[in-house]
Amino acid sequence: MKIHMISKTDALWISIADYAETCSWDACARMATFMRENKFVDWEKVFVAEENGVFMGFCALIKPKGFPGSEYNPLLKWLFVEEQYRGQRLSQKLIEAVAEYAKELGYDQIFLTTWHKGLYEKYGFVKICEKEVRDGYFEGIYVKKID
Known about the structure:
The protein is an alpha+beta fold. The protein has a single domain (2-145), classed as Gcn5-related N-acetyltransferase (GNAT) (Aminopeptidase). A hairpin with a 2-residue loop joins strand 2 and strand 3 (54-62). It has a 7-stranded mixed sheet with strand order 1-2-3-4-5-7-6, with helices on both faces. The protein is 24% helix and 35% strand. The chain is globular. The protein has 3 helices and 7 strands; from the N terminus they run E-H-H-E-E-E-H-E-E-E.
């Protein structure tokens, strides 16, 4: 299994956008739209787990745009692993790749937002607060220190 770090100029970009559009989680389609509309800028990247030409999952590292706020930078976004590959530590490997890249950029921590409880803590994330996303719907904001 390999983790690819890609940007909009890479050959895999369109393939990953196509793949994201068909995933079972509705947020994946939002990532695909984000990719197709060239909203990734500067150092922002997509990370993809792949083996033998099969995409197994992905995530992105971006600057926050809107929620949760610019102070939560850089932001791990759209972490998704296909159902049949869960339990193989792919999320952990994707998070490690993102953290390594963030460290290369000079960051000492990464953030994420989620409604899940008890999921990201096992990867070293600590909940720092909750914020309203919209209409009474809240998400936790988590931070992970980078070693």
